[in-house]
Amino acid sequence: MSFTKDEYIKIGKAIKRELEDRGMSQKQLGEEAGLSKKTISLIIHGTDNAEPATLCLINKALLKHPKMMIARLGLTASTKTPAKR
Q1: Is 29 exposed, middle or buried (0-12, 13-18, 19+ CB in 10 A)?
Q2: Using an 8 Å Cβ cutoff, are 67 and 39 in contact?
Q3: What's the Cα-to-Cα distance from 54 to each of 25, 31, 33, 34, 61, rounded to whole Å?
Q4: Residue 45 has what pLDDT?
Q5: Model-level pTM greater than 0.70?
Q6: 70 falls in which pLDDT band (50, 70, 90)?
Q7: Do 46 and 38 form a contact (C-beta atoms < 8 A)?
């Protein structure tokens, strides 16, 4: 699978928005994804034609933060155990 230059730029912008929304740094994302900060930076700026496997690592790293996702959806996370029925 391959993307066009414009698609890589869109992907980079989307990742940057996610990081900003989550208050997460490129370094943190790199650590979570097992990638270098430089690789993350190149992808965000659309200067690296990331392989789909690399983009999957980034996606998985972003999904590791369920509390952030819950907050983004406008929900609240409860630490209480649900009542048994």
Answers
A1: buried
A2: no
A3: 17, 13, 8, 10, 11
A4: 93
A5: yes
A6: low
A7: no
Please report, for the chain, the start and end positions of each structural domain, with discontinuous segments joined by +.
5-72
**Two structure tokens written together for 36:** 């270098």
Q: Domain 5-72 carries which CATH code?
A: 1.10.260.40
Q: What is the pLDDT of residue 1?
A: 64
Q: What is the pLDDT of residues 27-38, one digit of tens each?
A: 999 999 999 999
Over residues 59-75, mean pLDDT: 67
From the list 85, 4, 2, 5, the residue with the least C-alpha distance to 45 is 5
Q: How many CA atoms lie within 13 A of 28 on its CB side?
A: 12
